[in-house]
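TL;DR need structure tokens for one chain.
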Amino acid sequence: MKRLIISTFLIFFCLTVDAQKYIGKDGVISFFSEAPLENISAINHKVAAVYDAKTKEIVFHLYIEDFEFPIALMQEHFNENYLESDIFPKSTFVGKIIELKENIAYVEGDLNIHGQTNKIFANGKFVLEDKIVNISDVNFLLKLKDYKIKIPKIVLYKIAEVIEVKVDIKMKLQ
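>> reply
TL;DR here they are.
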């Protein structure tokens, strides 16, 4: 049901006259945490996005519970103890391409995770061909404290305070 609501939102966002809107429903966002005692990684293959070629605005949306971990216990702790996905079920990014130079897009916008919103800047490959926008090789760092994600002292050496995030998505002209 919640996927239907989000899909409906994205479709309404896309229905403006004279605009070139691109939509993706199966983007990938992954993260990696390198800590002294343990590395943690997860991937989400259900990321939705809309790009408006006229205004250069871009929106990403995902559900926290859709992150998949190599170890089930990590996924459980991630959802219950750290991201509290029952209270904060989704994450969104609302931004704009501020510069496009030689197939590299420079983006700024507001990232909301865990009920907290912060401005981020990122860049990555941006290729527009045959009615398809391909965004790839986007990497940025995220500080857990900026999103009020608390790390108990007992696991401080298992979880990094700064997480590397990667984004890849293909969107089609609608």
